[in-house]
Amino acid sequence: MAGPLAGLVVFLVAVWVLHSALRRYHYRDIVHALHALPDARILLALLLTAANYLVLTGYDALGLRYIRKPLAYPRIAFASFIAYAFSHNLGFPLLTGAPLRFRLYSAWGLSAVEVTNVIAFNSLTFFLGLFTVGGLVFALSPLEIPHVLHVPFASVRPVGAIFLAIAALYLFWGRLERQPLRIRGWEFAFPTTRLSLLQMLVSATDWALAGGIFWAVLPPSAHVSYSGALTIYLLAQTAGLVTNIPGGLGVFEAVVLVLLEERAPPDAILGSLLAYRGIYYLLPLVTASVLLAGHEARQRTEDVRRVARVVGRWAPVVAPQLLAFTTFLAGAILLFSGATPAIHSRLRFLNDFLPLGVIEASHFLASLAGAGLLLLARGIQRRIDAAFGLTVALLLAGIALSLLKGADYEEAIALGVMLLALLPARRYFYRRASLTGEPFTIGWIVAIAIVLAGSIWLGFFSYKHVEYSSELFWRFALRGDAPRFLRASVGAVGLVMLVAASRLLRPAPPEPTLATPAELARAREIIARSPDTSANLALLGDKALLFSESGRAFIMYAVEGRTWVALGDPVGPEEEWPELIWRFRELVDRHGGWTVFYQVKTAGLPLFLDLGLTLLKLGEEARVPLADFSLEGGARKGMRRVHHRLAKEGCTFAIVPVEEVPALLPELRRISDAWLAAKRTREKGFSLGAFDERYIANFPVAVVRCGGRIVAFANLWLGADREELSVDIMRYAADAPEDVMEYLFIELMLWGKAQGYRWFSLGMAPLSGLENRTLAPLWNRLGALVFRYGENFYSFQGLRQYKEKFAPVWEPKYLASPGGLNLPRILTSVAALISGGLKGVVSR
Asked: Are 496 and 456 contacting, i.e. CB atoms less than 8 angstroms apart?
């Protein structure tokens, strides 16, 4: 929360600085200053921009050289230009440039890990150039910092010294330290000295050229040298980077205005900054969009379809995020357009055949549509089908209203392009959820507030020379731009406030409670139709249940602190999963918790990625194909020996039907209590069954009798359509024959095969199947080490080896949860749920 709020505060300060500097000037003054820039300077800026984006390809070329994955330069240049054009404009390179690089480089044969390393290397190169060029410029040509910025030093020389020290430290550390640097699970192997120097050279050239573009568009009357312009540019960009606002919008302009206020009037400086934004940011973005669209069109060939299937899993993750941004941008365009004067020649043209009332209403409704698009962008990000439909409708309305309110065909074209990008993505919006039930994060609230505040400031700035009075709001005239702005602003703010009030007045979500007998009865009917036997854990009664709207599926979950843990995948038809998973996520969000799915299989992984969760492999489940199971063959010699020995000792196997289980419960209870005492442990829960008479009575029980009495038992889980057979609670008496549980497993598998069951689940082997490789995630490497060396604490390898004798098929299981620093607390909460509290985590 602190990050977005800090960004909002800095943005508002920047807006105040801009307002203070421009309060004596009119909107037309800035437009005039923009048109007054010499054509030669504009041409120079265009040439420098082309050279700069050419140099930017060197980042990716060096990154691919670092990971030793050469690619043809045209491909490198294409991916680099597309990624940087988008990330420069949209900010947040991990959400914009990174997915585009994944999309392109994955299609050309790079793995996800390799693309991630290239992105990290590029980020390092970017800052290395800033520290190198900024350090030299700040140290050799120090700029005096105005007192209005309130920084603790008089010039930028100390900043230059710090920058140079960081750059030098990087070089020397890489030369002296041969071991990779490890930070929070991320590992970075230092490049060679030659490659490090190339990093500095490429990035320094990038910054020098970008500063040259800025210098080229400055007003000639300012008489600023290139070195002086570069110093100002680097300082303003540093301020923008610190705030993390996309493109440093507002902050960059405010710092430049303050530093150049004595050399040129603010309207001239702002005109130059608009030219800089258009040439260096918007023009490459439009070009990149056209190139990317052409590239995607060429992907229709059969050859590339094969590659697209490999990387297609990224589209559902990336597309809604980008479309949410374009929807938000469309809303901002309509609001900013409503806050600025219309072109009067176009208004006169419209007035020839449209009544004034139509023009006035179109202007007002266009701003309402803009505010609506800001709000709908959140629904687009959350994949809601209603948000898709309403966004299409508002974009169509925005196109029509832009033409009717002022013949703004440029605005209509921009909205049309966004609409065309949205329409083919219909399949990504599969959620039939309520728009009013979607929570807004603090980041979204801040973003909407920034756009509304920015549009209102822009309007007051555009009409600062208009004398405001109570009558102004009700004045209707063809050239009444200021009254139209006031009415549109009130309408937009009123719509947003109405939505906010409806959310504040919404009843608080109910606290989760354990499943009631009626809910357990509903769950029992769904479980009876489920092929997944682990669904029976819902009948333990220690979890809450969330049912789908149709009542055909449910999620079982429990809460520990802020951690809301759903056990396994949803139970029920897979077509019910997406909406049910999102409903659970929304329920957790309304309570301010962390969404966690524990022990999920591969089938639902794309849905959990859609939620923005991180996947961690927990281990592998052993499933024995019963059609191939027998005691014949040399590999089963040990099992035959165990089976024959216990049969000779008079042991027999039987399945006790459900209706006969209650009569056996006292005897089974004595065996269970004795087993717990002998193991010096206690009952678990959540993902492990516990001996509870009401729970055990739901299932048939497999028993082994010796001398006429029960010496071992296990309750049976029977999957629908004879898909799977499994056991939950397994207990045996202290005087039971050796290997009695192996005998029980053998008999169960033979019985299941005779009954026509396909699989027998032996349960999960924790931490099994994790790879300890250099580029593997920290969790995988740590888990692999624990699996290998943790035998003193838990028989990880022994459990795997025991299950291996049955020749199972190993299937991975995962934890889907928020990543980062919350992960240790989440894992502790999961362990507490299983162990019955934190005390159970540290004791048996």
From this structure: no
Three-class SS string for 401-416? HHHHHHCCHHHHHHHH
Question: CB–CB of 380/388 below 8 Å?
Answer: yes
Q: Pairing state of beta strands 544-547 and 709-718?
A: unpaired
Residue type at position 149: L
Go through 358-382 and write b for each residue having 16 or more CB atoms within 10 A of its CB, e for each that does not.
ebbebbbbbbbbbbbbbbbbbbbbb
Q: Specify the residue for token string 């949209």.
A: 90
Q: H-helix or E-strand containing 542? A: none
Band the pLDDT of 183: cuts 50, 70, 90: low
- Residue 26: DSSP 8-state: -
- Is the sign of the CA dihedral 652, 657, 662, 665 positive or negative? positive
Distance between CA atoms of 767 and 618, rounded to whole angstroms? 5
Q: So what's the pLDDT on residue 533?
A: 92
CA–CA dist 668, 700 (Å, integer) = 13
Count H helices and E strands in the chain, helices first. 31, 13
The residues that bridge with 653 in the sheet, in sequence order, are: 704
d(CA 89, CA 87) in angstroms, rounded, equals 5
Token pair recorded at residue 356: 């004034």
Q: Can you give 321-343 as a three-state secondary structure string?
A: HHHHHHHHHHHHHHHHHHHCCCC
CA 615 to chain centre: 12
Do residues 597 and 816 lie in contact, with contact meaning Cβ atoms separated by under 8 Å? yes
Query: Of 227-231, 298-302, 466-470, where does mean pLDDT reach its minimum?
Result: 298-302
In angstroms, what CA-CA distances link 5 with 81, 245, 443, 449? 32, 11, 8, 11
In terms of Cα–Cα distance, which of 48, 55, 61, 233 is closest to 133?
233
Burial class (CB in 10 A: 0-12, 13-18, 19+), 447: buried
Q: pLDDT, tens digit, for every residue of 97-147? A: 666 777 677 777 777 677 778 888 888 888 888 888 888 888 887 777 665
pLDDT at 304: 44
Q: What is the layout of strands, in order, in the sheet containing 709-718?
A: 544-547, 554-560, 563-567, 594-600, 809-817, 614-625, 759-766, 724-732, 709-718, 701-706, 651-656
Backbone angles phi, psi at 151, to 5 degrees: -105, 155
pLDDT for residue 306: 45
Report strand pairing: 809-817 vs 554-560: unpaired
Q: Which residues contact 66 (CB under 8 A, 6 or more apart)?
A: 117, 118, 121, 191, 195
For the entire predicted model, the pTM comes to 0.54
User: If pLDDT is split at 50, 70 and 90, which confidence band does 314 have?
Assistant: very low
Tokens linked to 480: 């009444």
Residue 792 in this model has a pLDDT that exceeds 50: no
Q: Which of 488-516 are b and which e, b meaning 16 or more Cβ less than 10 Å from the residue's Cβ?
A: bbebbbebbeebeeeeeeeeeeeebeebe
**DSSP structure string for 741-780:** HHHHHHHHHHHHHHHT--EEEEEEEETTT----TTS-HHH
Kindly report, residue by residue over 334-368, the tens digit of the pLDDT: 998 888 888 878 888 887 778 888 888 988 999 99
Q: How far apart are alpha carbons 332 and 793 in whole angstroms?
A: 58
What whole-number distance in Å separates Cα of residue 560 and Cα of residue 833?
7
Res 524: pLDDT: 93
Radius of gyration of the chain (CA): 33
Pick the closest to residue 704 from 678, 753, 737, 663 (CA basis).
737
805 Cβ contact list (under 8 Å, min separation 6): 638, 639
CB 116 within 8 A of CB 105: no
Interior angle at CA 465, CA 461 and CA 467, nearest 5: 115
Give the position of tokens 């035959």. 640
Q: How far apart are CA 328 and CA 335, in angstroms?
A: 11
Percent of the chain with pLDDT over 90: 25
